[in-house]
Structure formats: structure tokens, C-alpha cells
Amino acid sequence: MIVYTLKRLGGIAMTLLLLSIFTFTLSRVVPGGPWMQGAEIPLSDAQVAAFKAKYGLDKPVWQQYLTWLGNAVRLDFGYTFTEPERTVTQLIRSALPYSALVGGLAATLAISAGIALGVVAAANQDSWVDNIVTSYAVFISTIPSFVLGFVLVYFFSVRLSWFPAGNWGDPNDWRDVAHHIALPVLAFGIPATGGVARWTRQCIAEAMAADYVRTAYAKGLQPTGVMVRHVLRNALIPMITRFLPLYPGMMTGSLFIEQVFGLPGLGRYFVVSSTNRDYPLVLGITIFWALLIALTYFVTDILYGIIDPRVRITETRR
Amino acid sequence: MTDASRATTESGSQSSAIEPVFTPEGYTEETQYASFWVGAWRRFRRNRLAMFGLVFAGLVILAAVFAPILTPYGYEQIDMMNALQSPSAAHPFGTDELGRDLLTRIVFGARPMLLVGILTGVAGLAIGVPIGVLAGYLGGVFDWLVTRLIDMFSALPWYLIVLYLVMVLSPSLENLILAMIITGWVNSCRLMRGLTFTIREQDYIEAARALGIPRWRIIVFHVIPQAAPLLLWGFAAGIPVAVFAEAGLSFLGMGVRPPRPSWGRMLADSGYYWQFWPHMIIFPALMITLSVLAFQGIADGLRNALDVSENI
After folding, report:
1. What is the pLDDT at residue B26?
2. Minimal CA–CA distance to B99: which of B255, B280, B287?
């Protein structure tokens, strides 16, 4: 288990290192930057040089990278180009709660509704209920969240005026916030229910077809007992490993949802800073995201290794 | 009757080129007599969503190819007298705030969508398959390197890397396609590498090796053809993703540049008008959703027809 854990950890560190080299080098090598093309206020060469010296952009790329990496390890991603009074870390810290709240609620909605649908479908396999759930799952997961966002805003904001069409609301009043984020959570969470329902149905259907389930029935056990103790317990393993990464994946924010509803989250900062070519900010957010996602995969891998010893044995041998 | 005759002609011409190696789980009597591809087509045809997808995709492709002939207006043709018209006989999908015909823009908007889908798929295969097959067949340091690359691109959701690349390269349709290729080849590569591991252990490969057939010949004529069905599925599965990417990134302003029409861009550009003239977003939204659904349907149909197992 220790070898397995170390191997996984090493792999993640390697991946992050490669990703940071790739993204960093690209951002420095490609021509163009915040002071070069189409700037609103034309800058003289001397001014550009002064700016470059200030941000250390006049040094060779590898030297810049090492400096950046040294700071990044301590989660210090430098200052942003567009808001020089704030560090990237401060910005991430201020934007993350918004994304985390919307994404966390959306993931919870997707997982709970999806599992419920999947269980119903698996329990009534090949019936009309199953058909409806399966069709729903295919259809709903093909709707892009920003399209659904528009549809929801049209019906619930424009037509019925039940919910506001965007913005966060008063942060000190949780009712107002809830009122404002209801639609984003729905638009973000509903398309994700499709995948959850599909995977749940498949896991449970596979577990129900297993030999030990037939044996349990043959022994004359109660059907509910078989369902809970034998089917669900075994189906849960692949479900947990698949659904757990949904939380960090969605809590780090949705570029599209935050754009549609004008939410002040991480995804929106990412898009805005991309348009402004604010490299430190984009790099910081990218690496921060990669770190979170890699950590989740690490945790699920470890969980999987604990639950299912076959995984870690084959992995270690390879 | 017609089915049977088609089955014999097709199996006669194809079975010699590509052998039916993947034995499907639901192996029935009828598949036993026909070639693998004929059986796959039969299974595909039974899937209603897949057939809808095929018909819809066919229509969209035709519309995109013959767009200038089909549309009476130009996609940049501004007509302020007829701005913000609801759907009518002259403008079946209505007009936007500059009086441009929305049906025309929808038809032309299919072009970037298809271009991204098909180009990224083809280029992904062209790059990913050779690298994947070499990594899987040769193993060693090369395989280690390729695995690290695959890991690197899988560490983030693909659209973040694409967005990052587009930002660095400056936003345009060409750079969007380039970015999609840079991230997309990894999928074909991963698929091909995994397949090569299973294929290379099979008896007929060992037989070929025993006969002294050179390594490149084994790879080109024995390994890759056997992977063809799953590569076809991999190609199809990438298209809905690319459609979504084009719409999404254009929506964020990182894809197709105005005035060239794109469905995602049309959603973003509808500004505040759409709250009063909902036709401005209904049609682009519908086209994006239906296209993703259609291509996803084709991919799912192929998945069943070609029996792609969950583990690959």
C-alpha cells in the first residue's frame, strides 16, 4: 500500500510539473502580451522595458520559470497584470467561495437526483420507467449548461419573474443569495444528472447480474436485504470513485454558468483574464485547478486501492 | 431479400481486408454469417437515436456544404429596416438586431461546428494512432514518455487547456481548431495504446512474429486494422465534444470571430434583445443541443454496434 501511494504521489507531482512547464513556457514564448498589441494607451519602448523589468520578463524563460515555480510551490502565484494591488492568491481566495457554493450545491443536486433516477431505472430494468430514465439521461447530458441557463432565465426570470436573471445578491442575506443562485445551480446541476443516472444504473445492473446475488436469492433471503446488503454495497464502489471527483470538478466553477449569470467566481476570472491576457492570473488559476483535480484523483485512487486490493497489486507490478 | 444480397456482396469485398476479430458479447446466429461490419450496421440500424443522429448529421452536413446556394441572403447582409423581426415567411427564423437573416446565419454557422468536429477528429487519429501504437507495441522509455504526456493533458478538464491555448495563440477559429488538435490527439493515442496492449498478446500476432514478418508490417497490417472498429468509435465520440467546444468557446468569445456566424456566438451576441425577441436564442440553442444529441447518438450507436467495452 505504501509503494502504491508513493507511486501515485510521484505520478501526480510529475504530471503537475510537466503541465506547469508546458503552460508557463507557452505563455512566455508566444508573441504578444498585455503591453504589446492594441493597448489603449500607447507605451514607449522604455516604458515597456520598465514594465518588463518590474515583472521579471526580461530574464531568460527558464530562469523566470524557476522563480515562478519556487513561489508557486508556496502557493504564491505573483501579482496580476490588470489589478496590480492584489496577488493572484488573494484573488483566487476571494473568488473561490462563490464558485464552491454554486458548484457544491450543483454537484449535490446532480448526485442525489442522478442516483435516485439510476436506482429506479435499475430496479425496473427494461420497463417503460427504465426507458424513460435512460432517454432522459442521454438527452439531458447533451444540453450544454449555458444553453440550459438561457432557457431557465427565459422562463423563470423573463416570463414568470420568479428568480433574478443574474448577479450574486446581498452577501449578508442568505435568502437573497439563495434566490439569486437557484437558477445557476439548476443550470449547472441538471445536465450532470444524466451521467450520474446512467452510471448508477449500469453499476447496479451489473451488481444485480452477479452470481452471488443469484445465490443470495436462492438461499431465500429477503429481496430488500439482498438489494441493500449485496447489490448496493458492491455497486457503491465504482459509484463513489466516479462521483467524488464531481465535487472539486464542479466546485472550482463553471466558465459557462458564471458567464451566463454574471457570478463573481473563479471561472469568470479565468475568462476575463484570458481575454485580457493576464498571464499570472490565468497561470495561477490553471495550476490551482490542476492541483485540486490531481489531489482528488489521488484521494479516489487511494480509496480505490483500499476498497479493492486487486487494483494496487496490479498497479504496483506494472 | 435485399438485406441478404447486400450482406453477401459487402462481406465478399470487406472481410478479406478487415477481419472480424472482436467477438461481440451478444454474438447471435445472424452475425455469424455476415461480416463484422454488416453485423455492426444491423445493430446500429436498430438504435433509433443513432439513426436520428445519422439523418440529422447528414442534413446538417448537406446544409453546410451547399450553404451559399440554399440561402437567399448573405450572412453579413445588414438590413436595418427589417431588424428584430419575428419569424415570418421571408425570414423563417426571424432576423437579429442588425436585420441579418437568422436562418442564413444558422446554416452558415454549421460550418465552423463541422470543421472543428471533423478536423480535430481526423488530425487526432493521424497523430494519436501512430504514437499510441508505437507506445503500446514498443513499450520502454517511449511508452513512459507518452504516458506522462497523456497524464499531463488529462490532469485538467480539456476545455481549460483548450481555452488556455486559444488565449495564448489569440482567439480565432483556426487557433481553436489547432488547440483542439493539440489536446484531442491524446484521446486517440490513449485508446490506441490500450488496444495495442491487448492485440499484441494475441496468437496471430505471435504467429506473424514467428514467421519473421518485420515489425512495421505487423503494426500496419495486423495491429491497426484490428483496432479499426474502436478507432471509428473513438472518432465518433470526439465529435459531440468538439461541437460543444466550438459552441462554448465561441460563446465565451474565444472562438469564431464576428462577423462570421457561429451558434455559440449567436447566443452570446443576442445581448438583451433575446428577452423580448426569444427567437434570437431559440434557434441557435436548439441547433447546438440537437447537434450534440445527434453526434452523441451516433457515437452511442457505434459503441453498441461495435461492442466497445466500458474498460477501454
Report:
1. 58
2. B280
**pLDDT at residue A318, as a whole number:** 43
Distances (CA, A) of A207 to A203, A213, A305: 6, 8, 20
CA distance A192 to A113: 10
Residue B303 reports pLDDT greater than 80: yes
Is residue B124 within 8 A of residue B184, CB to CB? The reply is yes
- The dihedral over CA atoms of B59, B62, B65, B67, expressed in degrees to the nearest 10, equals -70
CA distance B128 to B189: 4
What contacts B133, CB < 8 A, 6 or more positions away? B192, B193, B196, B219, B223, B224, B227
Q: Say if the ipTM goes beyond 0.85.
A: no
Tell me if residue A219 falls in helix, strand or coil: coil
Residue entry with cell 465535487: A247
Distance from CA of B62 to the nearest CA of A (A): 23
Give the model's pLDDT for residue B56. Answer: 92
Residues in chain A with CB shorter than 8 Å from the CB of B148 are: 14-15, 18
The DSSP line for A160-207 is: S--S-SSS---TT-HHHHHHHHHHHHHHHHHHHHHHHHHHHHHHHHHH
Share of chain A above pLDDT 70, in %: 91
Tell me the pLDDT tens digit for each residue of A27-64: 777 666 656 555 556 667 777 777 777 767 777 778 88
Determine the Cα angle at A190 with ends A186 and A193, to 5°: 145
pTM of the model: 0.79
CB contact under 8 A, A275 and B160: no
Where are the domains positioned within chain B? 55-305
A159-174 pLDDT per residue, tens = 787 777 777 777 777 7
Whether residue B151 lies within 8 A of chain A, CB to CB, comes out as yes
B280: closest CA among B271, B289, B290?
B271
- Find where cell 420497463 sits: A127
Q: What confidence tens digit (pLDDT) does each residue in A59-81 have? A: 777 888 888 888 777 777 777 77
Looking at the domain B55-305, which fold is it?
MetI-like fold (1.10.3720)
For residue A79, what are the β-bridge partners? A87
Q: Which amino acid is at A189?
A: G
CA distance A222 to chain B (A): 31
**B276 φ/ψ angles, rounded to the nearest 5 degrees:** -105, -25
A12 pLDDT more than 50: yes
